[in-house]
Amino acid sequence: MTRDKPLLIVIGGATASGKTQLAIELARHFGTEILSADSRQFYREMRIGNARPTEAELAAAPHHFIADRSLAEPLTAGTFAEAALPLLDRIYQDRSVAILAGGSGLYIRAVCEGLDDFPAVSEGAEARVQRLSSEEGLAGLQRELARLDPEYYATVDRQNHRRLERALRVCYTSDTAYSSFLGKPQERPFRPIYLQPLIDRESLYDRINQRVNHMLEAGLEAEVAALREERYRPVLQTVGYQEWWPYFDGTYDRDRVIELIQRNSRRYAKRQRTWFREYRPVATADEAIALIENTY
């Protein structure tokens, strides 16, 4: 990369680690705008369960891709990049810095590096995955992906049926690991610098548990109940939402819901920490600013 390119500050990290606050402080310092790379915060119908930034936080700096569409207009990693790249071009007309912040690693990768070229899925692979999913469910998908591609299994959201199935289709089609197709970056007209908030595991898990409690106080149960007819959507088969469906069906009680949300959130955070392990940890916005200005 050359030094004449504008800078993209990429802030990743685990849920509840402090990405939003760090992004806002940096946006205010550099006088720039924030693109959200949280694949659940795109949707207007989801507010509490995805820890959307508050109105005060949104007012503190210009944000994009926050509650800008309906669940009926899903945004994949590829279409997110298609929308984000022209927006970055517009921001760079007036500024030399922009910010991309969120916990959805694949969406960040799509913007910064482009998506990888996977083989066309064979009919046999599609049928095999469908059969596994219907006969053994999520546990079967997890077990098979762990066997065929332990590297990808270590970072993927293991509660996300769609991502597990997609990886297995590629494994079955190509007879090789899904992860072997990853990591072939495309040239971009900006220079990314990858940062994450510095936080120890114990403090992070405590924040996660507290966040879940705050969500419940803010009306999470009612929010999810209002989305019951949309429960088939993949974005609602994720932590904070999926745990309620058996509760509404009478399978277990509310205490079990809370326990599962906290547990699954911690597990998701652990996978995120693995995904973002190469990002530079920074303890404060001042540390990040010094790093950026001294390096770039």
TrEMBL record:
Reaction it catalyzes: adenosine(37) in tRNA + dimethylallyl diphosphate = N(6)-dimethylallyladenosine(37) in tRNA + diphosphate
Residues binding ATP, per UniProt: G13, A14, T15, A16, S17, G18, K19, T20
Presence of the UniProt keyword Magnesium in the record: yes
Cofactor names: Mg(2+)
EC number: 2.5.1.75
Annotated stretches, region: Interaction with substrate tRNA: 38-41
Gene3D superfamilies, sorted: 1.10.20.140, P-loop containing nucleotide triphosphate hydrolases (3.40.50.300)
Quaternary structure and interacting proteins, as annotated: Monomer.
Family: Belongs to the IPP transferase family.
Protein name: tRNA dimethylallyltransferase
The species this protein was found in: Neolewinella xylanilytica
Gene: miaA
